[in-house]
């Protein structure tokens, strides 16, 4: 297989995974809204959703995760912890937002997180990630879409 076809396959798989992520997050938003409205507090919902997610990921990737953890340098542990903390805060704030605002507002506004990712990638990952004009234009369109949703209420 040529390098181009391997790269093309990886991009297609990555795109499919991103689409699956969007569907999962979208469905999860609606389910979380129902739960925080009718059954439990946002922090309980956050804790249980993170716990169930951890159990599912452990079941799917237990051997690979163990091998990776054993070989990971100490700096990687810091980054993994930081990713876990920021992810947990994201889930908690998302569920907290659902108690006071409708899912049709919370989901698009919280969906603007790629803007933060682009900014942080530009600042911290200059050697690994290239922020192109196309990426910046896409980010501007995201901001405009979020503004339209937020102002349209």
Produce a short descriptive summary.
The protein is mainly α and 153 residues long.
Describe this structure in words.
The protein is built from six helices and no strands. The chain is mainly alpha-helical. The chain folds into two domains: 3-99; 112-153.
Write the layout of secondary structure elements.
Layout: H1 3-38, H2 42-71, H3 74-100, H4 103-110, H5 113-124, H6 133-151
How large is the share of residues in beta strands?
under 5%
- Give Rg in angstroms: 18 Å
Shape category: globular
Average pLDDT works out at 88
User: What is the succession of H and E elements?
Assistant: HHHHHH
- Low-pLDDT segments: none
- How many domains is the backbone divided into? 2
What is the count of helical runs? 6
Main β-sheet: number of strands, strand sense, barrel status? none
Secondary structure: number of strands: 0
Based on helices, strands and strand pairing, what is the structural class?
A: mainly alpha
Task: State the distance separating the first and last CA atoms.
Answer: 52 Å
**Helical content band:** over 70%
């Amino acid at each position: 297989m040529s390098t181009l076809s391997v790269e093309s396959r990886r991009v297609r798989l990555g795109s499919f995974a991103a689409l699956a992520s969007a569907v999962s997050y979208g469905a999860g938003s609606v389910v979380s809204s129902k739960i925080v409205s009718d059954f439990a507090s946002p922090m309980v919902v956050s804790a249980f959703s993170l716990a169930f997610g951890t159990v599912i990921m452990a079941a799917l990737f237990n051997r690979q995760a163990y091998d990776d953890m054993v070989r990971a340098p100490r700096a990687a542990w810091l980054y993994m912890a930081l990713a876990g903390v920021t992810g947990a805060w994201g889930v908690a704030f998302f569920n907290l937002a659902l108690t006071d605002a409708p899912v049709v507002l919370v989901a698009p506004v919280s969906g603007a997180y790629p803007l933060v990712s682009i900014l942080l990638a530009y600042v911290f990952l200059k050697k690994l990630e290239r922020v192109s004009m196309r990426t910046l234009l896409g980010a501007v369109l995201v901001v405009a879409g979020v503004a339209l949703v937020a102002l349209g209420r």
